[in-house]
Amino acid sequence: MNPVNRIRLVVPILSMLICIHCAFFSLRPFTQREEPQNYCKSLSSDITSELLVGTWHAEPGTGIDQITLNANHTYSQKYSNPVTQISFQTEQNNWEIDVIDGITYLHLNNMHKCDSYESICTIKDGGGGDGSWINYCTGEVAQMKRFVTLVVLKIVPGDIYYGLSDLKLCHFLSDPDGSAVCYRRITK
What we know:
Helices cover 22% and strands 32% of the residues. It is of the alpha+beta class. It has two domains: 3-34; 38-187, Lipocalin, CATH 2.40.128. A hairpin with a 4-residue loop joins strand 3 (74-81) and strand 4 (86-89). The longest helix is centred in the first third of the chain and has 29 residues, at 3-31.
């Protein structure tokens, strides 16, 4: 076989092997969901409060939710939904991080939980209302009165939605079969 024909044969085979390799590694996060706590721990280690400072953006439903975390551990929240015409901007409130069993959580006092139901989003003092929320990393159920807790995770390489962000901040779930609304960083 001459060298040109050899190259014509090898290039498609190499391309196919690269595609299989990429597909395997892009699916790894989904196969690891069988043990979500270990998956969350692997993406949540070594995160400090300094790494969270900046402006974060999420798009729950038809709304736009933005939080700005300041270095002095205060934050503000701005929410708007052009469909329901609900919008607000909060004053400065306090935030802090906490690491529990290797998973980093961001606690935001008086934050409005606007990822599921707008009736909860508009509660005067913020929080998750009387509902129970599922921590998808541990499976534990929690209530959030006058605060919201978000899971802090590093971005998995190849995640195109969060491509410009290094971390994501994800809400707890209202439905165990649902998916989390997460914030991506838009400025540091």
